């Protein structure tokens, strides 16, 4: 009892209370130092982390490997896609020379007919060349077959249901309902009198005519892919030749277009290339998918660790210091580079899966696959800037871009309003008199080129002078736009970024912390090589892969220290 009484008396004595307060203060300081050390370690670069804990920079090495193999994949797919695009474009040009009478390269929108007899001649020419395709083409083109019969050529005309037009009397009576009349012609060898009689029965009322469309399907095989260890594709070309008379201006524009459908050939045999060589690209794509999944898992784990540390820092400031952490400091823990890598990995995985399906002829969506692979590769290369930021001279550029980004977005929003105003004004006023202002899309492209100093003289020169008032307005419009955007808005934009650069440079030279988080973290003076960052029992990089084991080991260590007498 005397012992216990002496114990209680020592607790309530002033010296005992002071000792308890000193102990509590020491624990708070130790907790704060540990948190500073954890935060400082979180913001270290891979080399510093390796010095601090001997942790291997797996993410850095993985990103370097990933950049190399993803770039190789993209180049391989780009070359394959280039052959597909070339085959499509060359076939389109071939069809124009085969089926359009007196066609010359580069005519484009200028290819048209102006007389009624020319319309009938061109239609007869198309049908004749289609019927004799096997004897005139130098390619491996063939008709589409459905069963034992060939698919017919479809000759259709669209016209107003009823109409009476008299320009001389300035009167008209039109039924706006559109009717379609079609004629099907099956290719026969040689072209017989039946086909000729059908064409003679095809009569066009040009006053009511809207358009004449000739549709047929041809098949071909792209054999050039064999050289790149890819199985050839079978192509279906849905060709459409349109005689457009919707304007009724006396000029019927003639256009040929085709829709391409890529299919797996039913039966194939390749001599001189083993199946192993053909399926090597598939194994390479699977390797890329595994690499991206690993990178995705590591970066996701790092993001979650940052969020967890952000909550720990927020709770510490709220409980121990009684203040809330600003959002700017909270977002410091959310590494935007990891988000970028996660997005690139996701896009690359999807693109690689689509590429595998294209190579195995399950899908033929080259455009969708190109978007995923191209965007993923772009983000991967942009992510390299993160590692460039570890060098002081490159880091100031990254800090400037990040600091100036909010102001740049607000500035572009304000400038964009003025830009849209000029777009709408130019479209409605100058559109009828200038080719570059016919649509909103071309207006925007023209004005953006003017901002960059491109195509200025032709924009001024090719303005039609049929209306002096509009011509005078165009001068005022173009001069004010160029002066406003080049001499004022663009200069202010450059000044905005320059001021941010000077501010960041001055802060780096003075070495002053730029936020409360940096002030808190700067109190930790431990160097990476001091050994203070190591966790007892940590070996290599296994603890970084198993944080739960690390946490439990830390708890056991602290419990053993507390249990000591």
Overall outline:
flat
**What's the total helix number?**
18
- Helicity, in percent? 55-70%
Query: How much β-strand is present in the residues?
Result: 5-15%
Distance between the termini: 21 Å
Low-confidence stretches: 1-12, 539-565
| DSSP strand tally | 9
> Average pLDDT value?
80
Largest sheet: 7 strands, antiparallel
Order of helices and strands: HHHHEHHEEEEEHEEEHHHHHHHHHHH
Q: Structural class from helices and strands? A: alpha+beta
Task: Give me the Rg, rounded.
Answer: 37 Å
Number of domains: 3
Transmembrane segments: 278-298, 336-356, 368-388, 408-430, 476-497
Catalytic activity: Ca(2+)(in) = Ca(2+)(out)
Keywords: Cell membrane, Disulfide bond, Endosome, Ion channel, Ion transport, Membrane, Transmembrane, Transmembrane helix, Transport
Domain Mucolipin extracytosolic: 84-266
Q: Which SSEs are present, and which pair or pack?
A:
Layout: H1 2-12, H2 14-42, H3 46-53, H4 58-99, E1 112-113, H5 116-131, H6 133-136, E2 142-143, E3 145-146, E4 149-150, E5 153-166, E6 171-185, H7 193-200, E7 209-222, E8 233-244, E9 252-264, H8 275-320, H9 327-330, H10 336-359, H11 366-388, H12 392-430, H13 440-451, H14 456-461, H15 468-510, H16 516-522, H17 542-545, H18 547-563
Antiparallel strand pairs: 1-9, 2-7, 3-4, 5-6, 5-7, 7-8, 8-9
Helix pairs in contact: 2-8, 4-8, 4-11, 8-10, 10-11, 12-13, 12-15
